[in-house]
Amino acid sequence: MSTPTMDEAAKVLADPSAYADDERLHAALTHLRANNPVAWVDNPPYRPFWAITKHADIMAIERANDLFLSEPRPLLAAAEVDDALKAQMEAGMGLRTLIHMDDPHHRKVRAIGADWFRPKAMRALKVRVDELAKRYVDKMRDIGPECDFVEEIAVNFPLYVILSLLGLPEDDFPRMMKLTQEMFGGQDAEHQRGDSPEDLLAVLTDFFNYFSALTASRRANPTEDLASAIANGRIDGELMSDVDTLSYYVIVASAGHDTTKDAISGGLHALIENPGELKRLQENMNLMPTAVEEMIRWATPVKEFMRTAAEDTEVRGVRIAKGESVYLAYVSGNRDEEIFDDPFRFDVGRDPNKHLSFGYGVHFCLGAALARMEMNSFFTELLPRLESIELAGKPELSATTFVGGLKHLPIRYSVR
After folding, report:
1. 173 within a domain of the structure (yes/no)
2. Does residue 212 lie in a domain region?
3. What is the CATH number of the domain that holds 240?
4. How many domains does the chain contain in total?
5. What are the start-end ranges of the H helices in 36-78?
6. Which three-class secondary structure state does DSSP give residue 309?
7. Do 384 and 285 touch, CB atoms closer than 8 A?
8. Domain membership of residue 206 as a residue range
9. Which of 165, 275, 348, 362 lies at a C-alpha separation of 20 to 30 Å from 227?
């Protein structure tokens, strides 16, 4: 088989710095959707893959979860990182979260935490979420008239929510925040511990050491929290393996915090940049549910997941060989002109809004209802009290190819 020709625009998908430059990123993705929607990408240090940039194709691949598998390459990482994680897994101490798994094992593991994110559990948690939302809007008032919204508000609010759900003590929250930033900020010079596979493995080891002690504690003395449900979760009558148990904590504690931080800060930035939409929402707070969906579409905290073809197949007439990987570009699907009217317009009343920010199919985000509730609570508390707001400096986006968003949002404001 001859090597496919590569469209230079597709290189942005394997370039962490491109995700810190919205204009550059979206210009390339707009080109790919129109001209090369299934594009070959060979850009070291990453192994080659097919970039899928159209909304319909992403959804079709997500539905075909028996043909397109999460294992062995669920997300884009440098080849040496892929190899290091594989070696660690073979040694019995790797990272295997829900995003790494396929059915039937994925379905069984997902069920262990699923009840904690159902409507009944969300209603029970709402009092705590509303309380935390008020705490952080009060903090904005107290530290104003300027702050870095990401570092002082957006990072902390969802972290407190998810770690409260897990049942962790507040004294441990700063440690979890730092580890989360190091894991998802591994491609960003400001947040990474280092730039080698060994540095990433060291972050995972710190996570695992913390949660190993937590597992032992919750098995000896179970409590009424998500941490206990994970520690005592069983698959086919047996306790989960150490790898699956520890990985479950990691994905809940980190993804459940960092992605919501990105959506909240990206949403506020969009409201600042679109003052007419901010005024519209303040004057009609009944629009909050659609506004939250639009903020999540706009920010797209999870940029991609990957799948590997289990058999030879085709996508949009392009042959995908067994063993080749496809890159599901959610950030592109969320701007697809065939799905969204005027996709580059921020519209707090957008309906329908079939965004892909939570994924689709069997891997639809377990914590989607919680993220929506957190954002609704926060902006429902903030907007009636917000008298003015503007940028106080240049916003900065993280360099990433996986999860990311604003890392700095300097604002000047007045909150009652």
Report:
1. yes
2. yes
3. 1.10.630.10
4. 1
5. 55-63
6. strand
7. yes
8. 8-415
9. 362
